[in-house]
Amino acid sequence: MQQYATARKKELDNALVDMVVKDCQPFSVVQDEGFKAFVGKLDPTYILPSGNALKLMVEEKYKSTKKKVIPMVQML
């Protein structure tokens, strides 16, 4: 069960990062009362990351994506 919870948290964290990037949302969106209530209705067990933690996740996603894209661009 713990493994499922960890995998689910990672899945939801990644979806949150994608939403923030695609919709140009501020990292503080995770502190908005309406957003917290909405997420709580979708999955009451999900604990939103802090704004700082979300920022770090976005930075990590940027670095990993950049690492994958640079070789592709160099081949052009």
From TrEMBL:
This is Hermes trasposase DNA-binding domain-containing protein. It comes from the Eukaryota. Transmembrane segments: none annotated. One of its GO terms (biological process) is regulation of transcription by RNA polymerase II. Residues 9-39 form the Hermes trasposase DNA-binding domain. One of its GO terms (cellular component) is nucleus.
